[in-house]
Amino acid sequence: MPNILGGLVVGYIFSFIFTYIITTAAKAMHIDFFSSSILASEKWAWVGVLIVGVWQTVAMNTIIYISDLQTIPSDIYEASSIDGAGKWYTFRKLTLPLLLPFISTNMILSTKNMLMVFDQIMSLTKGGPAQSTESISYLIYRNGMDGGQFGFQSYIFYCDSYNICNTTCYYK
User: Fold this and answer.
1) Does residue 93 belong to any structural domain of this protein?
2) Is the bond preceding 129 in cis, omega lying within 30 degrees of 0?
3) How many other CB atoms are there within 10 angstroms of residue 42's CB atom?
4) CA 119 to CA 137: how far, in whole Å?
5) Contact call for residues 58 and 109 (beta carbons, < 8 A)
């Protein structure tokens, strides 16, 4: 479900949760730290963006790992138990090497999502407070649309895309 919903929708839902629900519950329980929204704090706003990003992507990564674990034949584990291998040895020498292609796929997808985070920042903080949650993609949008720097921001986008492609090739 988290991956199906758009980033803006998830961001607005979590913005409501961080701003109203958590602060009201914290005030009722006399917890001073959460008495104001973490999205309003220059020091803690990035934590809110991180929580939303993790919540949105963990389900997809889990599905990828579960599907990979189901492709590993049970004969391998049976042979390893007959040979007397322990659980840790079986994981380290059998399961982990068979998971490596999927781990690299997850790393590529997670790195791409991290570099291109835009929706969550747009809906949660709009880059604030004091530009503490700006990402490269949000900076390109803000300076291109609001500042009229279309050529410069096109170049920044090209460099960002180049970095994403290099990162993808590095993991492969």
Assistant:
1) no
2) yes
3) 12
4) 10
5) no
Q: Are 90 and 80 in contact, with CB atoms under 8 Å apart?
A: yes
- Cα separation, 151 vs 149, whole angstroms: 6
pTM of the model: 0.76
C-beta of residue 163 within 8 angstroms of C-beta of residue 112: no
Q: Rounded to an integer, what distance in angstroms lies between the CA atom of residue 66 and that of residue 46?
A: 30
Establish if 83 belongs to a structural domain: no
Range of the domain at 22: 7-70+100-171
Per-residue pLDDT tens digits of the chain, which is 172 residues long: 676 777 788 889 999 999 999 999 999 998 888 888 888 888 889 999 989 988 988 888 888 889 989 999 999 999 999 999 899 999 999 999 999 988 888 888 888 777 778 888 888 888 878 888 888 788 888 888 777 788 888 888 888 788 878 877 776 5
Task: Give the integer Cα–Cα distance in Å for 30 and 24.
Answer: 10
In this structure, the number of other CB atoms found within 10 A of the CB of residue 67 comes to 10
Q: 79 in a domain, yes or no?
A: no
Q: What is the DSSP letter of 39?
A: G
Instruction: Please give the helix or strand (H or E) that residue 11 lies within, else none.
Output: helix 7-16
